[in-house]
Write a structure and sequence with these properties.
The structure holds two protein chains of two kinds.
Chain A: H1 3-34, H2 41-59, H3 62-83, H4 93-115, E1 131-134, E2 138-141, H5 142-164, H6 166-176, H7 178-183, H8 188-211, H9 221-235, H10 240-265, H11 271-296
Antiparallel strand pairs in A: 1-2
Helix pairs in contact in A: 1-5, 1-8, 1-9, 1-10, 2-3, 2-4, 2-8, 2-9, 3-8, 5-6, 9-10, 9-11, 10-11
Chain B: H1 4-24, H2 28-53, H3 62-81, E1 85-87, E2 90-92, H4 98-120, H5 125-145, E3 155-156, H6 171-194, H7 196-206, H8 208-213, H9 218-244, E4 246-247, H10 254-267, H11 274-292, H12 296-310, H13 314-320
Antiparallel strand pairs in B: 1-2, 3-4
Classes of the chains: A mainly alpha, B mainly alpha.
Subcellular location (chain A): Cell membrane
InterPro entries (chain A): ABC_transp_permease, BCAA_transport_permease
Membrane topology (chain A): Multi-pass membrane protein
């Protein structure tokens, strides 16, 4: 096992983690501000990917496709918020789970109805395809490197938005005391729609970006959604910093576990059994990580102490 | 408005009547559908103990359903291939006997519920929902990557397992077994709800602060409720696997966990007959809408949305005019 392979896998894990962050940031923002658990976040990821694949198919432009993914997901999010989600803020968690589960059913089957069951494909544009040579002679796909860059830019943008703008002040105030900021004259229902649409747009963007390296299909959102849940449980619900660190931890654990656990077990097991046990353990690694974090800190790494 | 007791009696009687009518007019498929509904109802009754009495919103109950299914699958797989199960120094023969399989399913899922409960009950609210969901995924991915027992393809069992004195290959007799299991579980739930255990759990759900102020420690009771709940859902998993003579990782899927909650909410949370009504309606919808359109989940989603937004107590809530317990 060479150093180059290790660095490649670390970059892969980082890329996966950064994409998880785009999902987790929206989820944690929505939970932090509105106190809503949104299972349908994965559907918005799927909506973004489908929007991107259709626009790229029609126009051939990848940038336009990304813009479409961002806008369509934001609009879908805003509509869902106004029609359904708005009624759930005061409801019990069980109702939120069920209503957003119902939304998943509607989104998934609706998409299957419109686009069919076959996966769509979104191609990496020519100017981003192919490998680049990193210092040390490591060849790495340019597109994946771009994903890491884009994700970090979004993280920076989110930090700027919440820490340095008027909207950000309102969002943070809303997390602390929603009655008070409503009393101070902030239109809270508009703010909620905005936050929800922002979260949706990030999910849609992630869907489109990942859609170019995987296939775009119905049900693509849910596995990512559940990992994003793991991320925010690890990071602490409501914390964007926690989401970023949690996402990178989960991304690295998942990717490196799949490669290194079987190799590690081969040191003291026969090869076949090691591969078998290693891959089974690796598929559980992130959940084991989550359990360990929970035993240590029940509210996550950066969550508010009760 | 109708009293809940009457509804329970009518529902169970109707549940028994449909397969008997189907037997008389020789519609064996209807009996299979009724068996499916009874087994799903049993799984949901299990969840209803955690959810309705304990207020524990578990989005990972498919773990127990799947463990029950794999308990049956693994034991029957070894029996049909005449290979003993090797557990380190221990060697156990596979079996086709339902009582042994059921006992294994119940014990294994109760043990899993104990471990998962110990970890997840450290948290509450949204954390609890997400953690149970994550544990479900953990088992799902493990079953996919565990190729000794079929991996993603699952395990097929060629002949249904046997129960002393019953010919399980006859649909109505197998229905009888499943229906009896359902009735026993409902009896257990009604006894639990009326017991001191149930009352304390109820108070801990409704006013946790007050319960702690008077010196109750609901933690262990919640854990016990979670274990009983997991065990019953595990039994349902074993029966479900026997009904289909097939186990696969989809029994661990998070959609199934979601559907179990849906069954309860359609009928009415915390109600004795809630899961029974819910799963009867679910199987009926699945059958008839599924015949009419490939996209029946859209309609299920819409119905669910309407119930959550406008009819909090589910169908029993509408019939009795009372909301039922809040979770």
């Amino acid at each position: 096992m060479s150093a180059i392979l290790v660095i490649e896998q670390i970059l892969n894990g980082l890329q996966f983690g950064i994409m998880l962050f785009l999902m987790a940031a929206g989820l944690t923002l929505i939970f932090g501000v509105m106190g809503l658990i949104n299972l349908a976040h994965g559907s918005l990821y799927m909506v973004g990917a489908f929007a991107a694949a259709s626009v790229a198919g029609a126009t051939g432009s990848f940038l336009l496709a990304l813009v479409a993914a961002f806008t369509v997901a934001a609009f879908a999010g805003a509509i869902v918020e106004i029609v359904v989600i708005r009624r759930l803020y005061r409801a019990a968690h069980l109702d939120q789970v069920l209503a957003t589960f119902a939304l998943i059913l509607i989104f998934s089957e609706g998409t299957r109805w419109v686009f069919g069951s076959f996966p769509l494909f979104l191609d990496v544009p020519s100017y981003l395809s192919g490998p680049v040579t990193l210092p040390g002679g490591i060849e790495y796909p340019l597109y994946r490197l771009t994903l890491i860059g884009v994700g970090l830019l979004v993280a920076l943008g989110l930090w700027w938005l919440t820490a340095r703008t008027r909207i950000g002040i309102q969002i943070r105030a809303g997390e602390n005391d929603r009655e008070m900021i409503a009393a101070l004259g902030v239109d809270i229902s508009k703010l909620y729609t905005l936050v929800f649409a922002l979260g949706a747009a990030l999910a849609g963007l992630a869907g489109a970006l990942v859609g170019a390296i995987q296939s775009v299909q119905v049900g693509m959102g849910e596995p990512v959604l559940i990992l994003a849940f793991v991320v925010i449980v690890i990071g602490g619900i409501g914390s964007i910093k926690g989401a970023l660190i949690g996402a990178i931890l989960v991304g690295l654990t998942d990717t490196l576990g799949g490669i290194f656990l079987p190799e590690f077990l081969k040191l003291f097991m026969e090869s076949g059994a090691a591969t078998q046990t290693g891959s089974a353990l690796a598929s559980m690694a992130v959940y084991i990580l989550m359990s360990v974090v929970l035993i240590w800190r029940p509210t996550g790494l950066f969550g508010a102490r009760p | 408005m109708i009293r809940e007791g009457y509804i329970n009696a009518i529902v169970l009687f109707g549940f028994l009547l449909i397969p008997i009518c189907a037997l008389i007019i020789e519609e064996p498929y209807t009996i299979t559908l009724a068996t499916r509904a009874a087994v799903l109802a049993l799984a949901a009754v299990g969840l209803n103990i955690a959810l309705g009495i304990g207020g524990l919103v578990s989005l990972g109950h498919a773990v127990f359903f799947g463990l029950g299914g794999y308990a049956m699958g693994i034991l029957a797989f070894h029996a049909q291939n005449y290979i003993p199960v090797e557990l380190g120094p221990l060697t156990i023969n596979g079996t086709k006997s339902m009582p042994i399989i059921w006992l294994t399913a119940v014990l294994v899922s109760a043990f899993a519920a104990l471990i998962i409960g110990l970890l997840s009950l450290r948290t509450t609210g949204v954390y609890f929902i997400m953690i149970t969901l994550a544990f479900g995924q953990m088992f799902f991915f493990f079953s996919i990557s565990w190729s000794a027992y079929g991996g993603e393809d699952g395990l097929s069992i060629y002949v249904r397992n046997v129960f002393p004195g019953v010919n399980t290959l006859v649909p109505i007799q197998f229905f009888g077994l499943c229906f009896t299991a359902l009735c026993v579980a409902l009896f257990v739930q009604s006894r639990l709800r009326a017991s001191i255990f149930g009352l304390v759990l109820n108070s801990a759900r409704q006013t946790p602060v007050r319960a702690e102020t008077v010196g109750l420690n609901p933690m262990r009771l919640k854990l016990l409720a979670f274990v009983i709940s997991g065990a019953i859902t595990g039994l349902a998993g074993a029966l479900f696997a026997d009904l289909n003579r097939f186990v696969s990782p989809t029994m661990f899927s998070w959609q199934l966990s979601g559907e179990l909650i849906v069954l309860i909410i359609i009928g009415g949370v915390g109600r004795l007959a809630g899961p029974v009504i819910g799963s009867a309606l679910f199987v009926t919808l699945e059958h008839f809408l599924g015949e009419f359109t490939d996209f029946w989940h859209i309609w299920l989603g819409l119905i669910l949305l309407l119930i959550v937004l406008f009819a909090r107590g589910g169908i029993i809530g509408i019939l009795t005019g009372k909301d039922g317990p809040h979770v």
